[in-house]
Amino acid sequence: MQPVSYRLESAWQPDGGPNGRFTFSLFNLSGRVLSGFRLVYTSLTRVIDPAACEDAVFLRRNANFHEFAPPEGLTLQPGESWTFVVSGLHRQAKHCTDGAKSAYLTLSDGKHVPVAVSDLRLEGATSEPPPARLPVGRLDLPFALQPWPAKIDAVAGEGFPVVLYPAPGSSPEDVEAVSNVLALFHRLFAAGHAPFSLAPSGQGVPIIFAKGADLAPEAYRLAFSPRDIRLDYGAAAGRQYGLTTLAQLLDGARNHAGKFRFPASGTIADRPRYDWRGCHLDVSRQFYPAADVLRLIDILAWFKLNIFHWHLTDDEAWRLEIKAYPTLTTLGVLRGPDEPLLPQLGNGAEPAGGFYSQKEVKAIVAHAAALNVEVVPEIDIPGHSTAALVALPELADGQEAPESYHSVQGYPNNALNPAVLLTYEFLEKVFDEMVELFPSRYIHIGGDEVANGSWLASPLARRLMEEEGISGTFALQSYFLTKVKQMLTARGRKLAGWNEVAHGGGVGTEDTLLMAWENPKVGIELAREGYDVVMTPGQAYYLDMAQAEAWQEPGASWAGTATPAHTYGYEAEGEFPEELKSRMKGVQACIWSEHFLSRGYFNRLVFPRLPAIAEAAWTPKAEKDWLRFAAIAPLSPTL
C-alpha cells in the first residue's frame, strides 16, 4: 500500500451562501515543498458561481469535474495545508456523499498525482448517524422465503432433510434444472451446504416433477410430505422458481434452525404478480467487471426477478463494443486528466476505462437466459451522448455554438443531433450489431433528460425544423425518436424508453414500453395516453437514493428519502384507475452508479431494498408483510 502524500478534507456548512458553502483543506503529507499546482476534484454538488470562491481561483468545470488554482505564490511546506471556501453551489448538500468523490493535483511539471479524499463532514449542524434500516421483524410462519409466495399452507417440521434430489425416473431436463439451481446456490453462497444432490441419498427427500397443464409458465406448486416433495410447474421458469424456493427453505432451516424450519407437510401455490420484474444497472458512471454483472444476474434469479436492464451508455462512457465504430470503446470510455473524457465521479490521476467485448456480452446474455432472465440493453439517446460525440465528433453540427445548452448534469451540447444525417447511419449500424447480441424483445433507447433548448443553436437543426414545420426541442426529439422506432421495428424489436419519450408528441404507442421514473403520477398519464408502462419511480425504486435523512446516510437526495420500509410498502398500481391497470406491466429497481464508489456502498444502498422490490413484483398485495420481510431480508446474498 502506497502512503498518502496528499489529502483533501472537506466540510459543508449551511450558511455562507444561498446553498451553503464548502470548506476544503489540502494537506501536504509528501515531505516535499508543493507550489505551482492545480487541484481537481469531482463532486455531484457543483459550482455554478465561479466568483464565489475565497482563497482560490476557479479555473473550469465540466459536469462534475472542478479545477482550482491556489492564490498566486502559495507554497505548502511539508505538513502544511491550504484552505479555501466555495459558496456558489447549485444545491445544498444533504448527505456525507455529497462532497468530493475524488481528487488529484497537477504539479508544475504537468505530472498528475493522486489526492486521498474522505466523505463530506457537516459543520454548523448536528451530524446524525443513520438509523437501523430494518426492525427485528416477526414471523407468523417460520419459512425463509424471498419473495413470499402467493399462497402457502404448510406445516413446519421438527427437522430437515440433508439434501433434496430428483426422484428416480426424472427427465434429463428436470435433472439439469436441479443442477442449474444448485450451481446458482454455490455461486451465491460459496461456503453453504448444498441443498440438492443429483444422486439419491438415504438422508434426503426425492423431488417428483410434473408439468402442470393448468399452470402459467412462471407458476409452480409444491406439495410436501415426509416421503417426497412434488413440484408441478408450468414451464422451465416455473420449475426454476420452485427449485429456488426449495433451496431457500432448506438453507434457512439449516443455518438458522432456531428461527426457520422446513415444511413437513402442506402446499405452496405460487405465481408472480407482474410479468415485468426488473432491475437496472448503470455501468457508464462506474464500470462493473463482467464477473460483477454475472453475480448481479444470479442475485436477480435468486429473487425471481426476470429482467436485467443494462444501461450501457451515457455521458460518462460508452461501454458496449460496436465493431463498426471501434472508437466508441477507446476514445468513448477513457476518463482521465489527459484522456478524451475528463475525470468524473470518483476518477483521479490515473486513467479509467472499461467496456464489454461482444464475446463477454454473449456470455452474459447466455448466462442470464439459462436463469430465465431477459437482458434488455440500453443505449441512451439522443441526450446523455457526450461519450459518443467525443468518440465520433463527425456526429456534431460543426457550426453549432459550443456550450449553447447544458444537460441537468452539467454536460454541454450532449445530445445527438437529429439533423445530422450521419446520426441515422450510425444508429442503423449500432442496432444491427445489438440485435445480433441481444435476443430481447426490447431495445431501450433512453430518451430522457434532453435539455430544453437543445439544438436550437444548430443551423442544421434550425433548417430541419423549418422544413418539417417543427417547433422546439421536444418536437424535434419526437421526430428523431419516431425514426429510431422505425429502425427497431424493421429489426423485429420493440422500443423501450424512459417516460420523456412521450414528450413533444412522443412515438407510436403500439409496441412501445415506457418507464415512469420522475414520479408515480407520470405512469398513470402515460397509460392514459395509450402506452404500456413499467413503474420505477425515483421516490421508491431508485436504489441510489439515501435510505434516511441523516447526514451520515450515503446516497442521493433529489427524489427524497427511500427507506426500506417505504420501498417495501410502495404500491406501484397506486391510484391507477381500474381501466388502466392492464397497461401497467410491472415494476423495476434502478441502480444508478454516481454514488457507488465501493462495494460497501453498493451493498448498503442496494440491499435490503432490492429484495423488497422483488417482493413487490412477485407477492400479492394482500400477502405482503413488512415485519416478516424484515425478519428474512438479512439472509439476502450481496454483490
From TrEMBL:
Superkingdom of source: Bacteria
Enzyme nomenclature, EC number: 3.2.1.52
Cleavable signal peptide: none
GO CC, alphabetical: membrane
Gene3D superfamilies: Chitobiase/beta-hexosaminidase domain 2-like (3.30.379.10), Glycosidases (3.20.20.80)
Keyword Hydrolase: yes
Molecular functions per Gene Ontology: beta-N-acetylhexosaminidase activity
Keyword Hydrolase in record: yes
Domain (Beta-hexosaminidase bacterial type N-terminal): residue spans on this chain: 193-270
TM spans (from-to): none
Keyword field: Glycosidase, Hydrolase, Plasmid
GO biological process: carbohydrate metabolic process; glycosaminoglycan metabolic process
Pfam family of the protein (one): Glyco_hydro_20
InterPro entries according to UniProt: Beta_hexosaminidase_sua/sub, GH, Glyco_hydro_20_cat, Hex-like_dom2, HEX_bac_N
Reactions performed catalytically: Hydrolysis of terminal non-reducing N-acetyl-D-hexosamine residues in N-acetyl-beta-D-hexosaminides
Domain Glycoside hydrolase family 20 catalytic intervals: 274-620
Family: Belongs to the glycosyl hydrolase 20 family.
Protein name: beta-N-acetylhexosaminidase
Organism encoding this protein: Sinorhizobium americanum
